[in-house]
Every structure is written in C-alpha cells, then in structure tokens.
Design a protein that fits this description.
The complex is a heterotrimer of chains A (495), B (285) and C (306). Chain A is built from 21 helices and 12 strands. Chain A is of the alpha/beta class. Chain A has 2 domains: 159 residues, Periplasmic binding protein-like II (D-Maltodextrin-Binding Protein, domain 2, 3-Layer(aba) Sandwich); 217 residues, D-Maltodextrin-Binding Protein, domain 2, CATH 3.40.190. Chain A is globular. The chains are: A alpha/beta (495), B mainly alpha (285), C mainly alpha (306).
Amino acid sequence: MKKKQSTEPRSMRILLMSMLAIFAVVAAACGSTASDAVDAVEGAADDAAEAVEEVVEGDDGEEAMEEEDGEEAMEEESAAPAGDRSITVALVGNDNIEKMAELAPENFTAETGIEVNFTVLDEQTLREVTTREVGAGGDQFDVVQIGMFETPQFGANGWLVGLNDLAAASDTYDIDDLIPAVRNGLSVDGELYSSPFYAESSFVMYRQSFMDEAGITVPDNPTWDQIADIARQIDSDEVAGICLRGKPGWGDLGAAFTTVLNTFGGTWWSANEDGSIGTSQVDQPEFAEALNFYVDLLNDAGEDDAANSSFNECKTLFEEGKVAMWYDATGAASLFPAEIQADTSFALAPTKVTDNSGWLWAWTLAIPVSTTDQDAAWQFIDWATNAEYHQLIADTDGWAAVPPGTRQSLYANPEYQEAASAFAQRTLDAMLAAPIDNPGTTPRPGLPGVQYVGVPEFQDVGTRCTEQFSAAIGGSVSVDDALAACHAIASEYNG
Amino acid sequence: MSQGNTGPVVGQRSLGGYLLSLLAWIVGVMFFFPVFWMALSGFKTEAEANADPSLIFDPTLEQFRTVTADKPGLLDAAEAFANSAWIVAISTVLCMALAIPAAYALSIKPIGKWKDVLFFFISTKFLPIVAAILPLWLIADYLDLRNTRLLLIILYTAMNLPLAVWMLRSFFAEVPKELIEAAQIDGASLRSQITSVIMPIVAPGIAATALLCVIFAWNEFYLAIQLNTSDASTVPIWVNSAVEFQGQFLAQLSAAATLATLPVVIAGWLAQKRMIRGLAMGAIK
Amino acid sequence: MTSTSTLSRDEQVKALQKKDARRRRIPLLPALIFTIVVTQTPFVFSLYFGFLKWRGNTTAPREWIGFKNYTDAFQNMFFREAAWVSILMTVSAVLLSVIFGTLIALLLDRKFFGQGFVRTLIITPFLVMPVVAGLVWKNQMFSFNFGVINWVLNQVGIESREWVSEFPLWTIVIVLVWQWTPFMMLIMLAGLQGQSSSVLEAAKVDGASASATFFQITLPHLRPYLELGVLLGSIYLIQVYDHIFTITGGGPGSTNIPFFVNQRSFGAAFAYGSASAYSILVVIAAILIANFGLRVLSGLLEGEEA
C-alpha cells in the first residue's frame, strides 16, 4: 500500500495546499457580495471542483464518477458484469468474511462462471435484513450469512434449504468432517441448515510479559473472582486490567455478559414445561449480582470508554498493550500479528458456580428457500466452507489465518497445528467445553445456546437490555435502574 | 433587498466593531472545524488518524485510493455515486415538474381553498417516515421495486414535494399581478405569459428550491438502507460501509465522508446567496 | 325575452366559471394525486396491521386481536420515555439552533473583512450528510481516546471524558444544533436583509440605542422568520434517525420515537402488528402537532390575505 512513498509527500503537500487554495477561491467567490461575480466564477469554480474530484480519484479511474450509459444504467438493477448465472450474498463486514469476498471472483467465479454480488453490512443491519427477508420470503438473497442463533429457528420455521442431501452429493464438502458440537448447533432433527464459515468459543487472553513482570500466574481454568482480582491488581494508569465488551447489542455486550450471567447461576427467563418462555428472571438476585460484578469490574479495572467497546476496540487495545487481559472470542487469536501472538497466553472462560462458561458461536452461510438458483447458491457455500478453501487461505495468507473452528481436518493437519500452535488446541478445547445444552443452573427456554436465549424474542430483549446495561457501564444510568428497565422489557414476553 | 449592511449600529471602525468581526471569524472557524478535520483526516494514514490530533503529517492519497477502488461484487464508489446522481437528479426534476404547476395553481390564480391544499401538502411532512416503512417495504416488495433506483426516485420526490410546493408558491406569489394583467391586455397567450413574464421572476426561486431538494435527497439514509440494501444503493450507504468492524478505519472513513459530502457542499457554497433570497421570499410571502 | 336572456347569461357565466375553476385546478392535480398516493397509502395498511398480532420472525399466523396492540402501547413505559426524549431532543435542538442562528446572523449582517467567506464556513454543516455528521462527531470529536474535544481539554489540564456514554442525549443535540444553526442563520439573514434601511436610519437619527433598535424594530420584524425557522426545524428534527443510529445506536436517553418505532419493527422485535399500532399513534400525534404548527403557518400567510 505504501508504494511511491518516497516521491509522494512533497507532491501531496503541494496538492493539499492547492486544494486549500481552490477552496478559498470558491468560498470567497461564493461569499462575494456581488451576485454577478458569483455567476462569473461559477463556471471556473465548477471546473476547479471537477479538477479536485479528478485529482482525488487518483489514477484509479478518471471515469469512475462519471455516469454509466444513461438509459441502460436506469434499467439495470445491478451493476454486475454480464454473466450467465449470478447470485447475491449478504455478509457481515469482518476480516475473514471480506477476505472471502475478495477471493471469490478469481477463485470461485473463474471456475464456475457464477457471478457473486456481495452485500456487506454491519452486524446489526445484517440481522435486520436477513430476518426480514428470510421471514417474508423475499427473493433478494440467494445466500445469507446468519449465526448459530438464527439457524435452528429459521430451519425449524422452514425458511432455509436443508443441506444434508446437497452435502452428500458433493465431492468436496465433507459433512462428517464438521466439528460435532458446531454441526449439532446448526441442525434441526439431524438436518443441517447452514454451513459454518468459522466458529468460536470464548476464552481469556492475556499478555504473558505483563503477568511475568507483575509476578502473577493466571490459572488455566480460572474463576471470575480470580480474574477480577488479577485485573484489579494489574490495573494501572497506563494499562487496564481487563477488556470486556460494553457496546450495546445482544451479540456484543449481550454475549459476553450472558456467559457471566450463566455461571453466576442466573438466566433471562424461566422455562415452561414445554420449553417455551416462562417469566422474566431479570429481577432475581443472581442476575443483579452478575450485572453488578460486570459493571464494577469494568469501572475498577476495565478499558477506557468501555460502553463503546466491543471485539474490535478490545482487539486494538490488546495489541497496543493498553489492556493486560481480554475475555472474548477465540477467533481473535488467529487475527493477532505474530509478535503479539508470541506474547499471548490463554485461559479457559472463567466460571463461578458452573464448571464451564465459554460460549459457542458460528457464522454460517445458508440458502433461503426463496432462492431462484439453489444449485449456484450451494456451489458457492460449498466453495467457501470446504476444506479446499482452508488450503486456499493457507496458500495466500498462511495456515494461521484459516477461519478456525469448523472442521476436524483442520485441527488434525500438522501444518495447521504448527502454524497455530499458540491457540489451535486452546480453541478446540474451549469449543468442546462449551456447555451448549446446559449453560446454567436452572431450566431455561431456547436451548441449545450459551450466550443467548435461542428464541426470536431474545433479539428484541437482548438488544434493548444491553442498551440499558451499556448505559450503566457508561454511567448515565444506575445499575438498579438498568435492571428494573430490563426486567420490564423481558416481562413483555412472559408466557 | 439590501446587502448585508443594514445591520446596526456598532461603528465599523470602532474597537467593538473589530471585536465583533473577530468573533464572527472565530465562530465561522469553529463551525467549519469538524468538516475541515474530516477532510484532513482523509489524507492521513490509519495510524496517524488513530492517534492524538495533529496538524503536521505527510499527506497521502492512500485512503482516497482505497475507498474509490473497484471492488468487484461489492458496493464501490463509482456505483454508489452513479446511483445517487441518477436518483437525486431525476427525483429533483420530477419534484419540480409536479411542484411548479401546483404552485402556479395555488398562487397566480389561486383556486378556492388554496390554503387547505397547501396545508395538506405541508402536513404530510409531519408524518414520520419510520411509521410508514413496513407498508412501504411490503408494497415495494409486491411491486418488485425494492433495490431499484425507481423506488427511491418516487419516494424522494414525495419526500421533497411539500417543501417544494410551499416554497415555489411563495415565489409565484411575488409576481406582481399587474404584470400578468398587462400581458393579458397585450393579448399574450398563456404560454408567453408564463415564459416571458412569470418565469424570469421565479427562476432564482426555482433554483433555490431545487437545491434544497438535492440536498435532502442526496443526504437521505433511512429509506435507502431499509429498501435498497443490496442494489441501487446510494452514497450514504457507501459511507457507512467504510466503517470497518475489525481494525482501524478512521482515515478511510474520513476520505469516504469527504468525497460523499463534496458535491452537495460545493453546490451549497455556490448557491448560498440564492438560497438566502429564496428563503426570504419563500418564507414569508 | 330579456329575462330569459339574462338567465341564460347567468347560467353561461356560471358554467364558464365552473369550467374555469376546473381548468385552474388541473395543474394542481398531478402533485396532489402523487402526494396522496405515495404518502397516504402506507398508513391505510398500517391502520389494518395495527389490529393484528403479527410477528415477522416467527411462523405464527397473523391473528386479529382488536385494540390489544393499542392498550399495550399505552402501558409501555419505554414508549413514553421515547416520547419524552423526542420532545426534549426536538425542542432543545430547535431552540438552540434558532438562538444561535439569530445571533450569528446578527454577527454576519454587518460589513467586515471576509464576511462572505465566514458565512460560507458557517453554512457548511447544514450541507453535510447526517450520517457523515454523526460518524465524524462520534469518532473524531467526541471519541474518548483520540477525540479533538478531549485533546483540547487535556491541553488545559482537564481530564478526558466519555462524552457519548455520559451524555447520550446532549451529544446528539450538539450535532443537531451544529447542523441546523446554519439553516436558521440563513433564514434570519434573509429576514435581516429584508429590513427597510430607512426605518433603521430613522431610528439612528432619533438617537435610539442599539439595544432599543434591536428589541423594538429588528426583533418584531424577525418574528415571522423565527416562526418559520421553528416550524421547519421541528418538521425535520422530530424525525431524526440517522444521528442516533450513528452516534449512540439507541439506549436510555437517546431512543426517540422514530428509533423506538423502528426497533419495534425491523430493528429488533419484528413485531409488525405492534409496530403498526405505534405508527398510527405517532401519526395521530403528528397530526395534532401539525395542526398546531399550521396555525403558526397560518399566521405567516395572513399578511398575504390582507
């Protein structure tokens, strides 16, 4: 990216100055009191503006901002280049996924002739869009990225194409190679409804050198009390003790907090005998204890601006050495630069009254039943989630960058074991330990599911309650008020 | 309308006058600062943008290259700008085409109950768009209009029409009745009345109104993200997609945001005088 | 004979008038019909949906439940909270931007070096895309670590603060005021420039003080412009969604009515029936507010009637 570095700065500075000059001319002209003058310079300023835009565009394409051929552009719904078959895929924007979008044209389309249009959205918008589209039977997407939360629900609702037969007919997709816990989480009555792209559990990551310096040993299988003690002990003005998610969203703060809630003995709702939602348990003491613990820990030893931090922010802070520990997704480990990886050690997700507390999550690709080209959609999913794709990533970015957590063959691969020795086994252990069918101490609806309640209502409750909790972390409301509000929200769905 | 010097009273060469001028400059710089900062950050590297604020750095076009690069299969800048340009241009033209005759009917020879009709137009602006999104989505889905430019053209036209009718009506009301009557007595046809008498007077008003329509349509986000998620997506969606969910994105976001705001900002700068005139007339008459 | 001819002339005149009235209405019709179809049809659907139990994220069939969605809505404390946030946000943003807009207009309505340039600077925020305004303020101004505001405060020895988390409502209001002050300034500038200079001259000659001139001549003259600013500002600011979406993403203190209603439908709950009921309530409230607003507008139009 930094080519031409040597010649660039001076010319850049000149360019910047000339832009400022143009701006000043335009602005002065606009402001001049004689409107005739405005008219007179308008043309000139227009030219200047165009020039600026052209310059800004750089050599990547002078025509880029020009219109496409008028009529045609109006009629055409997509700007996709011509191709016999094309599919539209909805994705969430993160490194693993965007890498896949980047590789698709040369590796997938070149082989199959199937054009792929990607719609990349933020997680929140992706969830809105997929739930709406798939639920209403909209035919906008042929492949949607959904998670382990949605798959069993959508599958049971009959909104997704079952994948067992398609997988069996494929030479490249080995369904039995999937890690069993993941496969189970994505299946309804034995039928797989989405194919995992990457899967993860949660664990504690910490900077070994910081701990060594402070003479602290982090247990391999810590309790939350131990982690909180260490965090408070090591916390200083320069380095925060621990980074925890504080950003609203059931998949952000909601995920991390719910694992704490589970192991503190609390839960969101009780379950009726048929497994449906009973009554809100947010007013129970365990819930309050868990939230108070979480908020206090962040206040005492958490990262700065915790209420706006989630995976991305914590990852940056951890890499910059501004936090000593970080409790989050196992997938983070494969994203660190080598020197950070070398200094990072891992411990299992902390517990309190349960034995295991790590979550289980997978981002997956699924085919809505409304697709117009099921075969093309499956070919794409097959390509993006089979073992050959792992090889492709290994060839381009090295084994350590392979999307983790989906296939046993990856963990059996000696090259992967070597490249990812720091975290491969830890990740697998954490995933196998995730208490997916029994995450807490009391009966609950929406199983399997650890860091969420696997019912559609949770999307609303989790979103709005974590807004309250995040506000409590940020300090604009009290923990008690947040709990009361959340109890009212969860009670809206009492069965 | 006199220019800018009706303001009282503090002598221009007095100390107080200089202080007030200084204050105006300070306020101006403060208001512009966030925009300036945004544009500046677009020329930084991510590392520089994600650090303590600094004015001294080696500018780079890297971010502008990244955000305008061709991204096969993804929403790239060229596509988003083309979509926005078409949608904004056509919806503004359409809006004017509907609003000008309506404004004419409400002012030059006002129909009975013209006030009620005008009120109706304005009252539709009070209806919250979010409250209509579900039916809009269903109707658009039924008509196969989702993810088409046509859909946003229709909606943006409807969104801007009340404001356009209202402002244009005021401009038409400015046309002196005597002029029209004189033209009639001279035997001018309706067409020539319109082209030679009315249009020259209201033309600046039409320009000001059209500009406001362009601003609001170019900047609209909610309808676009809800209805045109995968195709015919507009510039605001493209800007929002520059927010990365892993890694640093501030410089890249700034570059995208700068490009996205540039067209409307320049148009607004160029037309501000007319906008003031337009608002003055459009407002009160 | 005479009588019949008069009659027929009357009839003729009436018929002509009718024809003329119809002809004069024709140019209005396209805009009127277009507006009615596009803006009113959705609410007919909402009216119907509001009586249904209909959840878009389940397969449960739609069910007619009468007014239950409405009774639930009235009991929902979060709806009331959102209404309160909406009022607070709109009123404070409108008032602040009208006040600042007026002050700045007064400041700019005098000849000084760079007058037009300064006006150009100030006008810019109004032209900035709301999504961009939200993102830039959140990530570059308010941001805890590298935000300009904290950096400036640090220079004078004040500790950094988490602006967005601590003051969710007011950070949004600040950005709204930043964007809408220029618009108000434009309106006020138009008003100031419309002042007759002879009256001001006369006041000067009479030896009126600056403040007396302002309060007794300028302010009354500006009144309709102030009303216009309040009206237009309210129309747009009560609908604010983009800023909340980009700055706080909702939550206590910043979830206003549009954000709340969106969360009921596509945002999280997919409770389409309930969301429609809320929509209808919001529309009713909007009509009430509009009536009030239009009375103000009516005052604006009065001058012309005379």
